[in-house]
C-alpha cells in the first residue's frame, strides 16, 4: 500500500457538499419534505406510542422510532443506533457527529482543496443555517472556514437527476476554466439525492443505477473538458429497509463511518492509477487508524520501526464519543 499522507504529484481537490441527508438524517415522507431525525421528534414519537396514539400521524410516529432504534452498521460500533446522529434543538439542523466527520475529510484533502456547497442551503434564505455550518466546521478545523463557492443559485432542482446534472455541469465548467498546465483533479461528491436510491433514473441519457454509474456520468461530462487526469468518487448517503411491520423505510442516512473512511482513503491516497482489487485487512486498518487518530498523531505512529504493528496496537484504544463518535483515549 502506498503511503497515506503526502502525494507523489500535486493534486487539486474539489469536494461537493450536500447538507440534508449528509450532515443530518432525513426520513422520507411521501406526504412532503423529509422528516428530520431530531431529538425532539424522537421523544415526541415515544410519548405518543406510550399513550397508544392512533391518529393521522401514527405511521410517521412508527417510522421515526424505527429509524431512531435501528443499529447503523457500516463500520459503526455494534450498539450505535441512528438516534446517535439525531440533531439537537439549537443545532440549526446539523448533527455534530456528522459535521466533525466532514471536517476530517476537508482537513485530509489538504490546502489545494475547494469545498463547494451544492445543497439547497446555498440559497440566500438559508444564510443563517449556512453560517452556522461554517461556524461549526471552523470549530472542528481550528481555523476560519467558509465555502469556496456554490453551485448556481438559479439551477432548477426537483429530482435526483437535476442535482446530478447541476453538479456535473459545474464540474465541467471547472475543468474548462483550468489551464493546460493544471494538475490532476480529484473530486469527492457527498450526496443523498433528495433521499432517493440509484435505481435506474436517467440523467442526460445515462441510466443511473449504481454509484459507479453516477461517477461515470460525472466523469463523462468533465473529463473531455480537462487536459489532466480526473478522479471522481461519490458517497451516496442513502439507506433503505423494511421494518418488522413491512413499512418501506428510506432515509438520507448521513456520512456514516465506513463510507467516510473510504472517502478519506480516496482523498489521501497518492495520485496513481485506480487501485485494482480490494484492500487487505491490514491496509483497511491503517486507513481507519489514520482517519480516527488524525494526520499528525498517525504520522508519529508511522515513525516507529514497526509502524504497521503500532497501528494495530492503536485500534483498540479508539472508543466512541458522544460528539465525535470516536476518540483516542490513549496513545
Tell me what you see in this structure.
The protein is α/β, with parallel strands linked by helices and 331 residues long. The protein has 2 domains: 12-276, no CATH class; 277-331, no CATH class. Helices cover 37% and strands 17% of the residues. The chain contains 10 helices and 13 strands. Strand 12 (318-319) and strand 13 form a beta hairpin. Mean pLDDT is 84; it is low at 1-8 and 318-331.
Mean pLDDT: 84
Shape: globular
Distance N to C terminus? 24 Å
Total beta strands:
13
Count of runs of 4 or more consecutive helical residues:
10
Strand percentage lies at 15-25%
Low-confidence stretches: 1-8, 318-331
Number of domains: 2
Characterize the largest beta sheet: strand count, sense, and whether it forms a barrel. Answer: 5 strands, parallel
As laid out across the biggest beta sheet, the strand order is: 5-4-1-6-9
Structural class comes to alpha/beta
Rg value: 20 Å
Helicity range of the residues? 25-40%
String of helices and strands:
EEEHHHEHEHEEEHEEEHHHHEE
